[in-house]
Structures are given as C-alpha cells and as structure tokens.
User: What shape does this take?
Amino acid sequence: MVESRLNLELEVQQIFQLIDQGRNFLLSGGAGSGKTYSLVSVINQAITENPTDKIACMTYTNAAVKEIEERVNHKNLNVTTIHDFLWDNIKHFQKELKQAIISLANDENIKKISIDGENPLSNDFFDHLEGGIQYKEFVRMKEGIISHDELLIIANYLFDKYPKLCSIVKDKYKFIFIDEYQDTSEGVVEIFLTHFKKSNKKNIIGFFGDAMQSIYDDGIGNLDRYKGVDESTVNEVLKKQNRRNPQLVINLANKLRTDHIKQEPSTDRNAPNMMESIVKQGKILFLYSKNDDTDIAKRFLKEKENWNFDKNEVSSTSIKEIKTKELNLTHNLIAEKAEFKNLMDIYDKDPIIGLKSDILSKIKENKKNNKPEIAITEDDTFENVVDKFQLKNRSKELKKDVLLMNPITAQLYNQLKDKPFSVVRKIYLDKDALIDDKKQNEDDENKKGSKRDNLIKHVYKIQTNIRLYQDKKYNDFLRVTDFRFKIEKISDKKTLKENIESLVNVGDKTIEEVINFAHEKGICLIDDKFNSFKEKNEYLYNRVKTVKFSEFQKLYDYLEGKTPFSTQHKTKGAEFDNVLVVLDNGNWNDYNFNYLFNEENIRQRFIDGKSKTKSKLESLPRVLNRTQKIFYVCCTRAKENLAVFFHNPDEEVVAKAKEWFGDDNVLDLEVVHR
Assistant: This one.
C-alpha cells in the first residue's frame, strides 16, 4: 500500500503520514492550489487502503457535493452537505431531539432557539407531534420543524451531551473529511474536534480549505486555536503551489494574504498557467474614473485588450474566444445590467411589505423598551394598523402618504389595505426565492434543495423546455416536457414540435400568459404546487404575473451562468480567462473598498474625530477583513488577465493601487479616452 503512495503529490503523502500516526489534519492551500484535487486523491487512497471502511465527506454547497460525487464513485463514500450529514446522524434520536430543543429554548443565553409566547417549555411540549422533529428549508418551531441555523445548535448540544452519539458516528466512519472548512460554523468544528474527544473510539478528521477565502460571516474562518503537532490537535499541511493564476495575479494575491501562505506557480506542466514550463505573466490593471458607469471600463477592455463581454462569448475566427466575467458585490448591482430589475425589485424592495416589516420592527422595539403596546385586534385591517402606528420617514412624512402619492405604490397598497393584518403580517418576500441557484434533486426529501419558490420553479421549468429545444437537445427536451405523456404516435411528435415552436417566440407576453399557454399546449402543466402557491401568495403572484416573460429569460440566463455577470460571493471556486472586478459596495455597510486601499488614513481620520461615530473605528477591523478576503477571492478567479474598476478614488487609493499593481498598470480612463 505504501508503494502506491509514491505517485501521490507531496502534500497528500504528508497527510497519509499523519493518518498513519492516527492524527487529525488540515490541508491549507491558497486559491488555485488544487485543494479539491488533493481531497479526491486522499479519498481514493483511503478507499484503496481501507476498502471496507466508510468515508464521510462534507462540503458547503450542493454543487460541491455533486462535483466530488462525479470525481469519486464508491459505495462506501458518503458525500453530503454538513447540514445533511448532521441531520442524518441525529434524526433517529427523536426523544433526545425533543428534549434538546426544550432545554435550549429554556436557556436564556440561546437566542436562536425559542417559541413565541411559550416560556418556559414543559418537558412534554412535543409529545403530541405525530411526525416528530423535522428538518426543512423553513422553521416552525412550535410544530417541531427546524431549519439550517437551529440544526447546527441542536446538533452541537446533542454531541456535547451524549458521548455515545460521538462513538456511534466514529464507529460508522473511519474517515470524516470537511471541505471548505473555513465556511463551516464554529459549532460544527467543535463537534469534531472537541466533543468527539469524549469518545474513546478512534477515527480521522481531515479539513481542507483556505482561511483567506472565509467570506461568509457564519464560518469559523480558521482553525488556529486547534492547530498543533500532537494527537489532540489538528496538524497542518501547507499547499503553496498555484495551478490557476498567472504570475502577476499570484504576486498581487500574495500582497493581499494576511497569513503564512505565500503562493508560487505550480511546476506541474499540466497546470493551466504553464506553457512549456514557462509561467504565464498575465496582466493586471487598476482602472478608475470619476464616472461611476462600469461601461467605460468595459469599453476600454474591449477596444484595447480584446476582452469579450458578449452573453454567448462569440468571437471571430481570427481572435481567440475569451471567457470573461464581471464581478459585482450584490445581485442588486447586477439586476439592472442583466435586465431582470423588475423581478428583483418585487422580491427584494417591495414598498408595501417594507412598511409591514417596519410595523413589526416597531412592535418588537416597543416591547423591548417596555413602551405601551399599541392594541391590534383580530378585526384590524392592514390599513387600520398602518393608521395606528403613523410611521414616518426621515423627512417626517407619513410613510403611508408617500406611498399613496405614487400611482404605482398606491395601487399596490390598495391591494392589501383591506386585508386582515393577521394575513398581511405573514407575507414575506425573500430574494433567495427568486435567485437562489442551488441545484439539487427535488425528489430527494432527505436533502435540502433550492430556495426558489414554486412560482419561480414552474416558470424555470418552462424556460428549460424552451432552452433545450432551442439548443437542439431534443432527447433532454423530451425527458422534461410534460407533453411526453401524450406521445403515442408520430403525429403526436409533430404536434409537440408545433407547440414548442409557438412558445419559443414569446415576444411581449407576460409571465402569466406564458404559464397558461405552456399549460394549454401541454409543454409544462400547471400542478398542485403551483396552484397552492398562487392561492397562498396572491399578492406576490399578482405582482410577478404582469412582468414580461422575456425578463425572466434574462434572469434564467444569469442563474445558468450564461451572462458575463456574477456576484463576488457566488464566484468562489470558479475560474475565468478574464475577470473584471467592480469595487462598489452597493450600500452594503459590511464592505468598504476605500478601507482596503486606504486603511491607515481612514483609521487616523476616525482617531482624529473626523468621523461622526466612534462605532466606525470599532467596526473597521471587521469590515476591512471581510473586504480584503472578498477582494482576494475575486482577483484569484483570473486565469489570464485581471482588471479592477474603482469609481472616483482619492489620491491615497491610487497610490496604494500603484504599489500593488505597478505604476504602468494604474490608468485614469478619462485621461486614456481624451
């Protein structure tokens, strides 16, 4: 077996030396280092050397689960998200689950586990549940339904309280590997590295990831407090090679890193950045302008650098086809550029639901501050409650009056004003229901799939039918269209062809018109899930149904990666020939790109009292750390060339850019275009 390790990369050999000693390990590698390749190698070698032992591999997203499953196919390998792994291992212990929730709900220090109006919970609170505690996409604690956040807290509690549960899992899996560990919650890491020690059983825990790419607030970020060189700690293996980026991007990335990893080009001739053993230099540009229109940067890159931002990335035969991505911080910044702004505004900026949310916040605030409660009765309409609270904006205008002055928002308000407030308060709009791009087999009830609502899922299915037919993927089209159940003879296929072709050219048809047309033609039948959604979400449906279907097609292309746009968070793990990073925080206070390029001066201004609030100084390290990491992730997506666009930077920002990018690579676009 040892001889078979000689063909493994050095870092994997080092990992198995630790495994031989019974030690847990951490593989730390920067962007483009090939961590997933190493993970797959470790799994394959572990299977080779332990063919009868089970291996668990957990990662952060369903997309990553699918990728690993495609690379390794073995009956003893269980690849899941972390949430699914935890649920699979605690769901059968219903008695303990119920007691855990009751104990946590009664603990004043645990804020996320509670049931409104029920305090404390009695020990028999959940005894009436027929289906027991369930794990779903939403939370209804009173009904015994928990979601993602609650699951992590409850699992941590159970593994802490019941060492036998730790023994059961360790007995079941000789190896447990956690990919993208930096995005894993601290409570999950505590299960594997603290609670597991309470069991005398032996197994190996391995972590793979990069602390510099911890871009989610609920992730642990790093394992520094668990690192060491003995059996009770995690032993770190460093992977410093970079198989993706050209030299200049690597140099920039190393300036951004805040840890002990300094990457170097891979010496592997098969690495993407190698050409006849010569490392590609690539190109990095810092572009800026007083004009905040990103198009000025894109025009420059098209004309001077031959970048291609077209949706289908079509190029002439004389110019190399270039795969390009424009990375923005938020979906909202992209929505207008990608032409699905109306849909985004419905799900994310509805003014009437915003007013309802303000009222609920005011109720909570009054309760917290022990202010007299404003009575709300069962008979109160939404308008009654709005009039009782008399909420005002910053200009001291009544929010209701502002809504009624605008014909569009007035029409929306009138749809809900006479509805019972008890009904309106339950209307929640979430942009994830529109734009979540998690792909998962919806038939597998044990795994949590997309957060898209049933209206968007239905419209998505219609567009999938259209796209598969347009792309001439006829076999795939026949597998998804509902018309397949009607095909009995050749003439039926002819009818199907006529029906789908009549649907392809949607023109100015609305979403509702296309839904009805697709149903009438048998392409995509309206089902119970759709009808239930329409009935229970009348307000939302009425808003969406009038939007042109062509706008949804733009959203579909965006979610399917067929546009040059991506959010900076969603692009992690991906790579593109050319990358344009737009440094605009989109009014998101958690990020500030001025801090990134001008930390010393910003900090001094706060200290000198030029800032209005002391809290900004206190939040500076957190905001800077978050901004630096997202910028690092964005820059390291580039396989060939990188461009950064900064709107109206001050002199200090430009000076820092010249230090990082080089004087000749920092360009004022207004000067260039003169």
